[in-house]
Amino acid sequence: MSVSTSPQRLPPKLVRLTPPAPAGTLVFLHDMGGSVFYGRTLIQEINGFVGCLGTRLDAGLSADLDHLTIPELGRRIAEDIAAASLPQPLHLTGFSFAGYVAFEVARHLATLGIKVETLWLLDSDIIRKLPGSMLRLAPFAEARRALGFTRRNWRVMLGGRPDPNVLHVYGDVPMYLWEHPEGCREIIRGLYRAMTEYRPEPWQEGILPGRTVLVRGTRERRSRRIPDDLGWRRLLPQVEVVDVPSKHMGMMTDPKIVSMVAAAMRGRLPTDGPHTMEKASA
After folding, report:
1. Each residue of 124-134: pLDDT tens digit?
2. Euclidean distance between CA atoms 152 and 141, whole angstroms
3. What does each C-alpha distance from 132 to 2, 35, 53, 136, 151 come to in angstroms?
4. C-alpha 196, offset from chain centre
5. Residues 157, 168: contact at Cβ < 8 Å?
6. Hey, which residues does 243 pair with through a beta bridge?
7. For residue 231, is it left (φ>0), alpha (ψ between -120 and 50) or beta?
């Protein structure tokens, strides 16, 4: 069934970024600030090849930020995606933190009987979320992490008052709120807390993604014992790894690296034309 060309009203958590295109629909999951602005250059590169949507926090999610969890966030976004009847095949992607959200959205879509054809994880490191993994696989890297955390937080550890504009939990990347627009800071507080509490579970039931692709930046990977899949194969049985010569943020900001990521997507997404989303058979 061909996709209709008439305008479609999307559920509140979804926003259309580019028109429908032959490779189906690619949904960008929002970052810790609640937007998909991180993907702007990549979206320009793949415009016309795949139709792109983004997710955002609606009023209901914003009201629940003080107790929202990553699995619950994934469930509620998945329900809106399922309700939208998007052109398929359906693909999901998330950069860094947004990769966690993409993983949970894909899991919950499976429970609704909707298959994700490709799950793209853009430099999303899950290994730090698997208890004991870093200490076992990379003890020297973990020791450097501990020293760095102590150096940044020794005053607080000795009883000093924490800076409310610095979010730093051991094992997670610190966030300095003064680097972000004031309107995003409460969103970042809520999602940072959700991230620090997140403990992913292996995908044990439902429909697995047709393909999972991890695009990994190689310039900040210091320990050779850290697996190339950054821990994702403990959660999903098959993960394809694509390496790019990039630092973490450069994957989304360096035009040459973004072009590499776009080329990897174009080479792995089907182009037999979009169709109305249907539930997959179990």
Report:
1. 999 888 877 76
2. 17
3. 49, 31, 36, 6, 22
4. 15
5. no
6. 216
7. left
Residue 100 near residue 116, CB atoms below 8 Å: no
Contact, 244 vs 260, CB < 8 A?
yes
Give mean pLDDT, residues 82-94: 95
Pairing of strands 25-28, 90-95: parallel
Q: β-pairing, 166-167 with 14-16?
A: unpaired
Residue 240 CB neighbour total at 10 angstroms: 13
Domains of the chain: 14-130+200-276 (3.40.50.1820)
Residue 228 has pLDDT above 80, yes or no: yes
- Radius of gyration in angstroms for the set of CA atoms belonging to the chain, rounded to a whole number: 19
Considering only residues 93 and 133, tell me which one the structure prediction assigns the higher pLDDT. Answer: 93
Alpha-carbon distances, residue 10 vs 6, 82, 84 (angstroms):
12, 11, 6
Beta strands in the chain (DSSP E): 14-16, 25-28, 51-55, 87-88, 90-95, 118-122, 166-167, 175-176, 211-217, 240-244, 275-276
- With 60 as the cut, is the pLDDT of residue 2 above it? no
Task: With H, G, I as helix, E, B as strand and everything else as coil, classify residue 54.
Answer: strand
Q: What is the pLDDT of residue 133?
A: 74
Q: What are the pLDDT digits (tens) for 158-192?
A: 888 888 898 998 888 888 999 988 889 999 999 99
Distance CA 77, CA 104 (A): 9
Classified as helix, coil or strand, 22 is coil
Phi, psi (rounded to 5 degrees) for 140? -70, -40
The conformation of residue 3, written as its DSSP 8-state character, comes to P
